[in-house]
Amino acid sequence: MFPKSCGLLICEMPKTGELFPKGQYRVSGQVIKQVEVAVSGKYAMLQVGANNLHIVDISEPAAPKRVLNESRLGLLYGDQLMQGLAEDRYACVFWHVSGLHWYDMSNGPAPAYSGDNYPLRIGAANGLVAYQGKTLATLRGDYVLLDRHERHRLAELPVRHVGSRRHRNKNRSGWLCDMELSRRTGSMTYQQIVAMADKANFRHALWQMGEVIADLFEQVMERQPLLQNLPINDDPSSSDITKRWKRDKE
Known about the structure:
Methylamine Dehydrogenase, Chain H
């Protein structure tokens, strides 16, 4: 568990289902965003802050100890720690710029970077999972199985297509979120998501962002003579679009 107030909370859960706190791991001034117990009862992998990976020895729950602290090029902001181990030995972490990195969890006294890196940008929201001894990564609705020694370009690898899926469906009671979208939003219903967006005036925020972007484009065109000579077509102007947004909002 990793509630913000106490960092990583290590608990014992007997058959009764109750949780009994046994220890804590805190990082001053940082938030722990994701935890995977890569080696049961031994090592936990933690996303800490914007781009740090901590591997923590939890074999003594009352006194957890950090055994590795790494930061690679890119951010850790989603579901980016692999569930399970490739080859029953290697954990995997994905930084959004530098790609996938594998860590040897059976490396003598402490885990260490294996030296294997695949510089691929994948779908951080969908996570990584160990499958058939490899790392399964998602790619905009597709997926690919990666060996940690893989060095071929993505275009040379067999990429499998999952197929299109909609994140909402409808029954007699109205719109429903699919299970994946509900999981990502903390089990919120479609109606709750819409109500939250309305309360936050999200539509107006989008309109404001559009206005700022339009102003930036206009400033760029004023500074670049070549853009000023572009042909004019029948597309709606920014003022027309603004009027439509305001009319829809009323």
